[in-house]
Amino acid sequence: MEREFLSTSELAKILGISRIAVFKKIKSGRIKARKIGRNFMIRREDLPEILGTSLGKNDKEIIERVVRKTVKEYGQTLRLLGKE
């Protein structure tokens, strides 16, 4: 069973950076972390966001807007291409 949290050392190893760099990212707010005792712990479920592999709400809205515009402007052409 996987643990719910990663230590700063584990995250540093995954990201290929130093623990100090992880601490700086936590301090600047770029990485969300919880202080448990004297250690910072990072939720494992936040890993995709940290790695940049998840889409935020704003990203999803931009993609939806672009898709709607494309379908509106090129809908008929897309349907014809889909029949090929």
From TrEMBL:
One of its GO terms (molecular function) is DNA binding. It comes from the Bacteria. Residues 5-47 form the Helix-turn-helix domain. InterPro entries: HTH_17, SinI_DNA-bd. This is Helix-turn-helix domain-containing protein. It comes from Candidatus Liptonbacteria bacterium RIFCSPLOWO2_01_FULL_52_25.
